Amino acid sequence: MSVNYDYVIDTIKNLYPEKAPLCLDFGCGAGQIVERGLESGLDFYGADPYPENRSEHYEESVKEKASLDGHISQIENDKIPFPDNHFDVVISNVVFEHIADPKKALNEIARVLKPGGAFLALFPTKDVWWEGHVKLYFAHWFRPKSKLMHLYLKSMKTIGLGLKSDSETPDEWATHYQKYLQEYCFYRPMKEISALWQQVFNAEPESLAYEYMLFRLSQSRCAPLLNNFAARFLLEQICRIRAGRVLLVRL
Predict the structure, then answer these.
(1) What are phi and psi of 122, to 5 degrees?
(2) For residue 102, what pLDDT is reported?
């Protein structure tokens, strides 16, 4: 996901070409984006609840990086530990598919954003084809507790597909990741996402799917051919079904 880190930093700099904005990574994990932002001259902070299923790994990763000292905070009781109207930009990279109550999180993001601030979020919605956590197409399209989901996961792992694991049998792997998708992943339709953004920010989120795909393909030989309506439509659809949504809203 390092291309996402670079894209986020590039987008922030394009949004604020004449100043270094105060930025927050909501759901910062091990602080990779915060670290990249600081290296690029941005004033960057991160906050994460560090839930039980990943707290040890991430907290150890953060503590090992001296450059992040004082820049990473823990979210407790769903409250971002910063005052109102504090940040110019809040970003969130593949986090919202893990949030059971997105409206509560969005309200907190809106609270800490300054008037005129921007919120950039990258995450998959229900219509995405690729399930990136287990690295299989359509794995999240099954009913969460269905035997069919387990059979699909097990079958794909049996033929060598899916997230690599040398310590589990295909059946154990399927059980493990079916439970993970049930408990930690919440895929929502874009219609619901748009309504939530509208309720909290009083604005429709703007899709940056085309810009995101152009950024990913910027080093490709075909990049000069992608500046037209047909290419825009195609790249937006590829982003939607393979990566998810890239949404920007301004207060």
Answers:
(1) -120, 125
(2) 96
Q: Please check whether residue 241 is in contact with residue 129, taking contact to mean a CB–CB distance below 8 angstroms.
A: yes
What is the residue type of 49?
P
> Quick check: 37 and 71 in contact, CB under 8 A?
no
Place of tokens 């880190």: 5
Distance CA 137, CA 234 (A): 19
Element (H, E) at 72: strand 72-74
Amino acid at 210: Y
What DSSP state is assigned to residue 76?
B
Whether the CB-CB separation of 161 and 131 falls below 8 Å is answered with no
Predicted confidence at residue 54, as pLDDT, reads 66
User: Which DSSP state fits 241?
Assistant: I
Q: How far apart are CA 174 and CA 186, in angstroms?
A: 18
- pLDDT at residue 148 is higher than 90: yes
Half-sphere exposure of 250 toward its Cβ, with a 13 Å CA cutoff? 6
Asked if 8 contacts 93 with a C-beta cutoff of 8 angstroms, the reply is: yes
Query: In which residue are the tokens 């810009």 written?
Result: 211
- Is residue 114 within 8 A of residue 107, CB to CB? The reply is no
Distance CA 157, CA 217 (A): 30
Radius of gyration of the chain measured on its C-alpha atoms: 19
Residues in the chain: 251
- Residue owning tokens 């950024």: 215
Residues 46-59 have pLDDT tens digits of 999 887 766 666 76
User: Coil, helix or strand for 216?
Assistant: helix
pTM, 2 dp: 0.92
